[in-house]
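[audit] Reproducing an earlier prediction to check determinism. Same input, same settings, fresh worker. If the tokens differ from the archived copy the diff job will pick it up downstream; this log only records the rerun itself.
[audit] input (298 residues):
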Amino acid sequence: MLHSIGTIEIKKYDDSITSGCTDVNDLLDTIKKEYANSLVIMGTEMGSRAAAKERLYHNAELSLSVLRLYTCALYRQAIQGVNIRLLDDCFTTYKPVTTFGWTEPGKSLSFTKHFGSIQNFKIDPNILNHLKNDLFFNKISTLIGKQDRNELEEAVVKSLHWIGEAQKDKSRSSAWIKLWSCLECFFTIGRKKISERNARGIAAILVFGGYRHEQYDDYNGLKKKIKEYYGLRSKIVHRAEYTHIGSIQLSELAYIVAWVIITMASLLDKGYQTLSKVREQSDRLDRISTRKAAAESN
């Protein structure tokens, strides 16, 4: 098994997966041939077949978005260069693929066949250990299947959804909006001074959140950049612009978003539960930084 992410298990296919299934349509040979030496995503959901399948796909997407999050954190071009997809329809497969399952009791097999073309992504075991040991992989993963999440946990899960959607989106302007949705999960509280609140919160998280980002050690400079990036968002939303987002800008925003989410997970680990508490600390750090900058300029 590679890992369990939330309620989803990712493992190499073996015959034990379908052990005990009722194979009335002679599907097992096809499944074995197709999935030999491949990874499968497994999970269990309750309800009708359609409802259970929908929930399973939803949780599987969130689980893969955990991986998408870390690709954006570790690789600057990942938002455009890495393509992690759930192979569950004809638009996302890179080869013929079968999604299969069964119902309880009886374990009668059912399947759907899909076709398409997309690329692979391989995870180095050393990188996976780094994610687990240093970047709160397990903490984030457990949020997916958790019931009764607190406010900050819910914001992290929402941000996972949007960073996953952004990475799948090949339109830079559309991906830009989705990345901003990730950030607004945490910092858009109320309707006043939204740009300032986002800039203050994001800058505080990146500069003072516990991870060293040499390119973001200038708090006030980073605040200015975030406001500029929010302005680019506004051009898309309010003026329907769509050609002004460059690939370098998109990669940088994805990097910022990924590390904001990871740092939020670290705050969860420290006992933070509410967005107001995060905002309280970012406001405090902003006041300190503003006073320091004013003193240095005199």
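[audit] rerun output stored. Observation attached for the diff report: The longest strand covers residues 97-103.
[audit] end
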